[in-house]
């Protein structure tokens, strides 16, 4: 049985006012998100340019991939919670992710057109699909469990809990920020294998950090019942059966991802089954208060689904629009020649693990001043590298995806101050109103891109600053809506089905990935071999899509605004 450490032990286990285990989880998740978003920034462009997928095929694949990435963690979290334990689940997930990301570096030959037919390197494609399956299963085991470990580092009444999670989620966004600047830049400038390879090496660094830092996790990540894990079932222990089933899951996903219609069909069936169960549970198992709170929760989840359907255009239609019809450099007069250029972020990020290890060891030996200066050096290095790589290095469509995480890092301190400030004055908007505000800003983020499409339609490449403005507005919306989803599940769900409702939340997020891809297909272009884009037609298609999504967002925001008073009453005091 694990016990909480004594006060003296806790003091020695602290660093910068937080448990040292937090920084182990921070860097593990930072590198996992670096590898994940680095690959995601390249994925659609890689499919369209290297394997010559049509736009429709590319959107279908990223929709199926995104859906599975958010659906499988429901299983990974349950397996870890019941049997495997979080440490073993994170290590298994990390190994799968390393294999998957490194497999993505196997490009094969460029696809070519022979007698009007696209001929692809089928062997390389199968490695690609297998790599996607490994990544999907790896995320499924790692992502839900690393967050759970962070929660277990704090007692329930520990006042540092909220600030600890704020730091942890900053790690996600630091990883996402540098993913574009490093992986996407390398992939589009030097070759796809270098971008995907950097993502794989990044995941190796994260796994190494997690394995090294086990002593700082205080035993909280161990299996709940080690005896049950060792129990033999036939020729093998339960633990080895779990590992075999995980690789069996990889084999199944490997086949599913090549048949995107099966993923879409499965999503529809799961959604139908969930709604059917939900209606039955409301009518047969809930009292009046529980019923109203559960309905309010479902409406909140639907709002999150709509928001992320709009948000995920950043890796779909926004990405191809930027690639085809926009300038890329924010300060073109300052940009140097790309030849021979490597991002400084590459060196700073790979120096981050040894610097963090040295800082924690210095803290262990009581040299806290040195530990703090090492962290200051790391943060300063990241800031300088980011400035240089944004201002002086040529940007690509994929590298510009860094803007999402950049604005989250920039806005997080403001919103961390804003919500308590409003709460102290009794003006903090509740969850329904925050949903409405988030959806409103998501809708408004398409306005700059509508303007950019009009400029491009006149025959001029639209300025990248329209994209910068769109990201800024979108991330304001995310900062309003991001605190809502998971907290709503824990606060509004009937206690005996909170796990199932959490699964429903992640499945809704998975569904939004699929919907985002289907909307993106409305702007698909048919580009003839050796031909050029019909700029006017392309700009019109993108403009129509952006207008449609803007109106969907505005309509959803208005609906939540009108429903807010009713939903607030149905929440029965939950803020």
**In sequence order, what are the helices and strands, one letter per element?**
HEEHHHEEHHHHEEHHHHHHHHHHHHH
From the N-terminal CA to the C-terminal CA, the straight-line distance is: 35 Å
Low-confidence stretches: 1-11
Total count of strands: 6
Give me the number of helical elements.
Answer: 21
Helical content class: over 70%
Q: What is the CA-atom radius of gyration, in angstroms?
A: 24 Å
What features would you describe in this structure?
- The chain is mainly alpha-helical and 575 residues long.
- It contains 21 helices and 6 strands.
- The chain has a two-stranded antiparallel sheet. A two-stranded antiparallel ribbon has the order 3-4. Strands 5-6 form a two-stranded antiparallel ribbon.
- Strand 5 and strand 6 form a beta hairpin.
- Helix 17 runs antiparallel to helix 21.
- The longest helix is centred in the C-terminal third of the chain and has 36 residues.
- The N terminus is likely disordered.
List the helices and strands and how they pair.
Layout: H1 7-12, E1 14-15, E2 18-19, H2 20-49, H3 55-84, H4 86-103, E3 112-114, E4 117-119, H5 122-152, H6 161-189, H7 192-212, H8 226-230, E5 232-233, E6 236-237, H9 238-256, H10 260-285, H11 288-311, H12 317-325, H13 344-364, H14 368-391, H15 402-424, H16 431-444, H17 446-457, H18 464-481, H19 485-492, H20 498-520, H21 535-570
Antiparallel strand pairs: 1-2, 3-4, 5-6
């Amino acid at each position: 049985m694990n016990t909480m450490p004594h006060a003296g032990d806790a003091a020695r286990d602290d660093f910068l006012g937080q448990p040292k285990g937090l920084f182990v989880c921070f860097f593990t998740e930072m590198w996992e998100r670096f590898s994940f978003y680095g690959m995601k920034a390249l994925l659609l462009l890689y499919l369209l340019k290297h394997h010559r997928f049509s736009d429709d095929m590319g959107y279908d694949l990223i929709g199926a991939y995104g859906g599975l990435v958010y659906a499988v963690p429901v299983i990974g979290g349950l397996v870890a919670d019941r049997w495997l334990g979080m440490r073993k689940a994170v290590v298994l997930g990390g190994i799968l992710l390393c294999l998957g990301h490194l497999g993505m570096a196997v490009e094969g030959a460029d696809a070519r057109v022979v007698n009007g037919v696209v001929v692809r390197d089928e062997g390389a494609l199968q490695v690609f699909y297998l790599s996607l399956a490994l990544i999907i299963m790896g995320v499924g085991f790692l992502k839900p469990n690393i967050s759970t470990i962070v929660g277990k580092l704090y007692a329930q009444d520990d006042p540092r809990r909220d600030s600890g999670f704020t730091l942890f989620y900053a790690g996600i966004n630091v990883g996402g920020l540098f993913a574009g600047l490093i992986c996407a830049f390398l992939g589009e400038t030097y070759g796809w294998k270098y971008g995907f390879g950097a993502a794989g090496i990044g995941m190796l660094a994260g796994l190494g950090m997690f394995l090294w830092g086990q002593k700082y996790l205080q035993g909280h990540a161990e299996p709940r019942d080690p005896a049950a894990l060792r129990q033999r079932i036939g020729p093998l222990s339960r633990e080895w059966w779990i590992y075999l089933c995980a690789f069996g899951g990889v084999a199944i996903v490997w086949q599913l991802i090549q048949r995107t219609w099966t993923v879409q069909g499965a999503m529809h069936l799961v959604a139908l089954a969930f709604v059917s169960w939900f209606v039955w549970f409301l009518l047969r198992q809930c009292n009046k208060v529980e019923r109203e709170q559960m309905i309010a929760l479902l409406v909140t989840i639907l709002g999150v689904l709509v928001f992320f359907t709009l948000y995920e255009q950043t890796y779909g239609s926004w990405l191809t629009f930027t690639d085809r019809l926009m300038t890329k450099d924010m300060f073109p007069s300052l940009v140097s020649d790309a030849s021979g250029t490597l991002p400084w972020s590459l060196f700073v990020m790979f120096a981050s693990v040894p610097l963090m290890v040295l800082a924690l060891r210095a803290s262990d030996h009581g040299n806290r001043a040195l530990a703090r200066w090492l962290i200051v050096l790391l943060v300063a290095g990241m800031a300088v590298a980011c400035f240089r790589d944004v201002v002086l290095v040529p940007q690509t469509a994929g590298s510009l995806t860094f803007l999402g995480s950049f604005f989250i890092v920039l806005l997080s301190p403001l919103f961390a101050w804003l919500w308590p400030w409003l709460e102290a004055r009794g003006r903090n908007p509740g969850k329904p109103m925050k949903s409405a505000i988030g959806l409103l800003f998501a809708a408004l983020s398409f306005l700059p891109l509508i303007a950019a499409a009009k400029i491009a339609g006149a025959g001029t490449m639209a300025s990248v600053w329209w994209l910068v403005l769109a990201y800024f507005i979108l991330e304001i919306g995310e900062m309003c809506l991001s605190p809502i989803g998971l907290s709503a599940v824990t606060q509004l769900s009937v206690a005996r089905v909170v796990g199932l409702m959490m699964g429903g939340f992640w499945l809704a997020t998975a569904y939004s990935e699929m919907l985002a891809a289907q909307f993106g297909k409305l702007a698909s272009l048919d580009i003839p071999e050796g031909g050029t884009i019909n700029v006017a037609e392309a700009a019109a298609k993108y403009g129509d899509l952006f207008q449609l999504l803007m109106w969907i967002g505005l309509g959803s925001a208005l609906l939540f605004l009108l429903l807010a008073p009713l939903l607030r009453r149905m929440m029965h005091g939950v803020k």
